[in-house]
Prior knowledge:
By secondary structure, the chain is α+β, with helices and mostly antiparallel strands. The chain has four domains: 76-232, Beta-Lactamase, CATH 3.30.450; 244-342, Beta-Lactamase; 344-436, Helix Hairpins (Orthogonal Bundle); 438-586, Histidine kinase-like ATPase, C-terminal domain (Heat Shock Protein 90, 2-Layer Sandwich). 50% of the residues lie in helices and 22% in strands. A hairpin with a 4-residue loop joins β1 and β2. α2 (80-91) packs antiparallel against α5, α9 (345-396) packs antiparallel against α10 and α12 packs antiparallel against α13 (556-566). The longest helix has 72 residues, at 4-75. The mean pLDDT is 85.
Amino acid sequence: MPSDADLQRQLKQLQEQYQALLADYRDLQLEKQKQETSATLWLEQRTRELQAEAREQKKAETLQRVFYRIAERAAADLSFYDFLQSVHGLLGELLYAKNCYVCLYDAQKQRKDFPYYVDERDGDTLQRSNVPYRRGLTEFVLSTGRPQIIDAARLKLLEAGGQVTEGSGDMTFSSWLGVPMHIRGAIGGVLAVQGYEPGVAYSDTDADILSFVANHVSSAIERYQALDELRKSEERYRTVIENVGVGVVVVQDDRMVFVNPSLERIVGHPREYLLSQPYTATVHPEDLPVMRERHERRLRGDEVDSMYGFRVITQSGEVRSLELSAVKIEWGKREATLIFVVDATARLQAELTQRQTLQRQTELNDMKSRFISVASHEFRTPLAFILSSAELLKHYGDRLPEPEKADVIATIETGVRRMTQMLDRVLLLGKVEAQMLEFQPAQVNLQVLCQDLVEDARIQHSEAGCELALEFEAWPATGLFDEKLLRHIFGNLLSNAIKYSQQGGKILFRVSSSEGRVAFEVSDQGIGIPAEELPHLFEWFHRASNVGEIQGTGLGLAIVKNSVDLHGGRIEVASVVGQGTRFTVTI
């Protein structure tokens, strides 16, 4: 049995072991505590890291989503203001942007435009154009070319340094952030946000975000400016096209798809009609084949005259002469023809008038030459008779028997009458050429007039020995005529019938009526007129080639034709060489 000492010793050992185990346990507890604390700290740190990563990931996703939506809005068919308004809304998802504006800067003009300006205090009163360049916060960003974060303290420093002296709008903001926008390779504007609440304070991160947004907005602004310039250019060209005096038309698929007002005026049809019809609807039928053939050749790429003429028929039935030039173009990404049309009617008429005037001048010069030739010949003969007869009377008048003296005087009188007749015809020629031959109708007894004409012809041509008869079958015998013109007409026709007939020939003057018109017929059995010369019979100074030495001026029938025309009548002639001629005047 162990002794007390042994037991004491064993008990002491056990106590020592216990104390050692207790110390080990305490060390283990401390170590456990340490490990638990370290794990907690690591977990907390890792949690914070993960949370930060999550926030960055969310921010990145938000940025990506905002940039995508900005690009989407830029491609949409929005007005410039609506686009900037949508950007403002999206910007609020990235930073404080309750107040926002966009400034566009024209460095050449030193002017600013504010196409978008929203402010809780200023409203949109600063949304205006053509603002002078001053020394404000916007100009500070433009001049430095860098993002600027401005608070009240920095604003005072800038004002004190003279860098900002003419701020616009409410300047009592808590924080202001503006970034430059690079447009077409140069600083062309500023995107700015600001807050009035005490807690608003923009950071460098906000400046980076706003700069990214500004880059996207700048690209969109370039597109809007390009579209605006294109629109203005189109408006300028359209204004020119709409107001130019030349007709402009675009033809596609055989239809007019565009016409300007000048074309409406030139072709004489309204725009609605032209756009609803084939492009050849107004073209003159005789010009259609050429118009279609050239149009088809042009579309095939064949060589076609750059300009040619054609005619159109207006709504009122007027025929106009036009000239066009055409070229192939694309219209709505499809093949079409651009045509320019000018009204050549007046010019062509002027050219025709000029040609007619020149031709008339040539005819007048020819007439003048022929008149001088005829007059010198026709006046010389009676003048020679008058001169010789006067000399005969001068030298031998006191010795001439009375019958011979009477014959000489009669010769003088005949020569004078002949010259008077020729002068009368020349005077009538002048009146006809000047369109001064008057038509003065009055009641005329045709039967009495015709009897007087026949009797005058007999007396005037008594030496011809022709048989002249009048057959009057016109009833009633009176009517409205110009007696003076009738005497010109039938005095000439009867005189010619006698003059170009053989000695003792028969001349018939027949007058009849039917259906309210009177027909006067003068026929002879004389030398006749060659058939090829009939078309020229009523021309001034024309005389048939077979008249030989028979005297005449070539004026009579031209005066007859004009006198008949003034009565609204017509004159016809039938003749056979060697058998005779018949003139029929119907009035």
